[in-house]
DNA sequence: TGAAGTTGAGCATACGTATGCACTATGATG
DNA sequence: CATCATAGTGCATACGTATGCTCAACTTCA
């Protein structure tokens, strides 16, 4: 069966194709009566506009590209969910690519650009300066989600990583912890650096330094091993700050099931993100909640705000969710 | 900056646009020499083919639509990951929509079809007969993932739900359990019905019947409550089969943290899916693993196999992962 | 030497829509 | 009554690519 086009509708009503196009766009030049007839005919014939043809003509696809580098992290399903829904509400579509292990954003971005997406969101990954320039030349907006660039040459939306990490450190110290350790993600990422730096900075303010620091690679298994390494060290930590919840869960399981330790009696563990399992009784993880909804909204605003220039680095505040995995006393006024 | 088109390349080399098009498609009619010059010029100018224009011409977008109804279920990130990667390898793109709560597939599908996707995959949801016919008319292939229709009017890829559930029941019974209960997802879904039916059937074969059956709505929280209801019943179960892992985790947390029961000593709990947390020590969940990779491959095969007609219902075998949440004795030969 | 075949390329058009411009009624204005 | 604005519609073209057909130049073979 042949697809029905605006030409078919035009023929059915006895008007020109341009009149159909205008009628369906509710152009003021077309009379009420004609519009009515055209809408009726379009419905009867089951006409659906061809967005591909429209895109070619208008030079605008209403598609947004999303490149996810860490889709298996339980933090992202909620992001994806909100993103697709908000876009759908705006009448836009989402084109998704998950970057395979061992590949870079640069490897998958070009194939997305061939589809002329109006904008690109990149989560958990950064952009080579080459691609950044290329995007800039073709005037395709980009927003980094949960990552930032130090030179502010690209839009980014992040949580206030530094501030939140400082708060975590302060609360732990004020509650009597003295042997603090950290499990990082990947040292080449901005989230890692910012959370790490904030935490360590606050320690120094109190005359302390890290008794251990390990890399968990942002995975459950990586953090499981990292925690075990930490506990083999000379100075055993009495608190571990994991810069992502998946890793906190791994660390928690490691010290509990492998070493038979009690949490939070023997050791406090704090995470970052507030993924769903964090609030389950089996973990009851104290963590920093990232305001996903706000972050997604800001991301899309940056993407579509026509006069967003120069690029902005948006930061939204996180919120410490105090649960049972860390021995914390009441907050002290500062 | 103006986008560079095949016309620009043609002008640069001094040939016609059609020659450029053919050269880049490696058409045999174009001489090696001309091809070389064209490729060079294309690279120099930074030419990227416009897939939108190409799609309009060829009536083929190389885009696949994915409609996910249950994206927050931890089972799906892995599906999504494999799907985008396999598609990318095939030179195709993924257009994603997550169905918001309270909406139907029918509400979001049309907007996807306007983009002329070559095929549609629907997870955790079904298709109205109206939409089924509409898709059939425009010759757009559909595959249901993890759901099936009883009349086989649409392609589907599922796990062998019945067989796996029978095995779960048999193993539980052979291990001495006599008071079996089940927590279902949503009664209107095929996965619910098949798993429920297989489980109950095997019970009857052994002269048993369910001591309880509750609905968990495929969510952690729903199953948490469902488990508590089950334990308030007249005949307390000594084993609960949850037809999805998220629910098994909720049930587990409910009986352990709320009721202080020991698993598997006081009660056995079995899930379905084998999501990542299932294998974490905190849960150590005995469950049926769905072979995601195979399921995704079969889905894409069905989608692109030109002579896949009539629609098929593909079933792939699940695998019982024996862990610590159920008291199981060694399997008995049958 | 002439006919047929082969190679390499261009011309023209199509895909489905949007839109600038021209055109025709119709009524308003002086 | 001539002029002009206005409303309503059609014509023609453009977007960037693919492709059927035509054509010229050259090679091959009898």
TrEMBL record, chains A, B:
Keyword rRNA-binding tagged: no
InterPro entries xrefs: HTH_LacI (IPR000843), LacI/GalR-like_sensor (IPR046335), Lambda_DNA-bd_dom_sf (IPR010982), Peripla_BP_I (IPR028082)
Keywords, in A-Z order: DNA-binding, Transcription, Transcription regulation
Gene3D superfamilies for the chain: 3.40.50.2300, lambda repressor-like DNA-binding domains (1.10.260.40)
Pfam families named among the record's database cross-references: LacI (PF00356), Peripla_BP_3 (PF13377)
Membrane-spanning parts: none
Domain spans labelled HTH lacI-type: 4-58
GO molecular function list: DNA-binding transcription factor activity; transcription cis-regulatory region binding
Family annotation (PANTHER family): HTH-TYPE TRANSCRIPTIONAL REGULATOR GALS, LACI-RELATED TRANSCRIPTIONAL REPRESSOR
Protein name: LacI family DNA-binding transcriptional regulator
């Amino acid at each position: 069966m042949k697809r029905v086009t605006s030409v078919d509708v035009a023929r059915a009503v006895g008007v020109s194709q341009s009149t159909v196009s205008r009628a369906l766009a509710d152009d003021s030049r077309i009379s009420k009566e004609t519009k009515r007839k055209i809408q009726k005919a379009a419905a009867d014939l089951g006409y659906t506009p061809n967005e591909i043809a429209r895109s070619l003509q208008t030079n605008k696809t209403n598609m947004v590209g999303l490149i996810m580098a860490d889709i298996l992290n339980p933090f992202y399903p909620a992001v994806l969910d909100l993103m697709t829904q908000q876009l759908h509400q705006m009448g836009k579509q989402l084109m998704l690519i998950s970057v395979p292990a061992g590949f870079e954003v640069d490897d998958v971005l070009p194939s997305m650009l061939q589809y002329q997406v109006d904008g690109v969101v990149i989560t958990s990954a950064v952009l080579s300066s080459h691609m950044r320039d290329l995007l800039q030349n073709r005037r395709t907006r980009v927003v980094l989600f949960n990552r930032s660039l130090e030179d502010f040459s690209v839009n980014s939306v992040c949580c206030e990583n530094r501030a939140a990490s400082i708060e975590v450190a302060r609360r732990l110290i004020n509650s009597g912890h003295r042997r603090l350790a950290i499990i990082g993600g990947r040292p080449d990422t901005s989230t890692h650096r910012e959370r790490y730096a904030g935490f360590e900075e606050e320690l120094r303010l109190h005359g302390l330094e890290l008794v251990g620091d390990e890399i968990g690679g942002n995975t459950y298994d990586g953090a499981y091993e990292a925690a075990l390494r930490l506990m083999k060290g000379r100075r055993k930590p009495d608190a571990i700050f994991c810069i992502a919840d998946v890793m906190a869960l791994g660390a928690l399981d490691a010290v509990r099931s492998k070493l038979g330790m009690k949490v939070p009696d023997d050791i406090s563990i704090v995470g970052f993100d507030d993924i769903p399992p964090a609030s389950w009784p089996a973990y009851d993880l104290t963590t920093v909640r990232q305001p996903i909804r706000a972050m997604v909204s800001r991301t899309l605003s940056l993407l579509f705000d026509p006069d967003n220039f120069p690029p902005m680095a948006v930061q939204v505040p996180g919120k410490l969710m105090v649960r049972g995995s860390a021995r914390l006393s009441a907050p002290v006024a500062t």
